[in-house]
Amino acid sequence: MPENTKVHFPLRLLDLLGSLWIRIFSFLGGIVWMLGEVSKLVVDAFVLRRVRFGKAAFVTQIVRIGVRSIGIVCLVCGCIGLILAIQMQPPLAEFGQADKIANIVGVAVLRELGPLIAAIVLTGFAGASIAAELGTMVVGEEIEALHSQALNPIRFLVMPRLLATVLSLVLLTIIGDVVSIIAACFVTVQFLGVPYDVYMDNTLSQVVLADFTTGLMKAAVFGMILAAIACHNGLKVSGGAAGVGKATTDTVVQTILTIVIVDMLFTLVFYQFGWT
């Protein structure tokens, strides 16, 4: 290897790592700033009553993000519940514990799979759409038009979408939990030979309120992350149609990666405090 290559390689690696960290901190800084602005606007609207809350925009986003996602969330969560029941039956049956499918499904769905699957589905269904919509508005100079009229895009565009996404994901998680447990119950009772009474008794004896509340807590945080990343990427679009496509792709990738990392941190914290 030439001497100049040996000298330049560490410098190039250092430059690459520095650029990566700058991009990460810039991205996180933009997200934190946006969440701070939305929090201030929410306080002004609900507590101080200084800002009018756009109920019409909020309801529109609830329908667009939440209501229209119910079908796909139910389908995916139902399949997950069915898969879990079928995959767990053979190893549990070897020890005569096939009825414990109910215990495992109940905890796994309420604590982990319900909020995680709903968040991932909503990322592809609504997150990419939010980024593309806002990116198109940036390209069409609609954001600049709002600024020229002294209107805050965070208030009129970001706040309704963020609040609607958080509420929608919490409600979708509840629906997904119910559908997953019902699907697992159906296949376990009808095809795996576990009596219905035994399945329900095991579910109710295993599942506690903490399983449900921790899942909803995750769902609320996942919804906030999803909406914040989608709105941030949408408002930072540059480069025309190609920029809109890049923002959409980045939103899906960044959101799923961030949600998985945050889910891991939640699990570590819950384990540390004995909430598992």
Structure explained in plain terms:
It is a single chain. The protein has 9 helices and no strands. Helices cover 86% and strands 0% of the residues. α1 packs across α6 (153-191) and α6 (153-191) packs across α8 (209-235). It is globular. The mean pLDDT is 88. The chain has one domain (54-272). By secondary structure, the protein is mostly helical.
Beta-strand fraction estimate: under 5%
Shape: globular
The helix count comes to: 9
Helix/strand structural class: mainly alpha
**Any low-confidence stretches, pLDDT <50, length ≥5?**
none
Major β-sheet annotation: none
**What is the CA-based Rg, rounded?**
23 Å
State the separation between the terminal residues, measured CA to CA. Answer: 53 Å
Number of individual domains: 1
SSE order? HHHHHHHHH
Mean pLDDT across all amino acids: 88
Kindly state the number of beta strands: 0
Q: In which range does the helix fraction lie?
A: over 70%
List key phrases describing it.
276 residues; mainly alpha; 86% helix; globular
Question: Topology, pairings included?
Answer:
Elements: H1 3-46, H2 55-66, H3 70-94, H4 101-139, H5 142-148, H6 153-191, H7 196-206, H8 209-235, H9 241-272
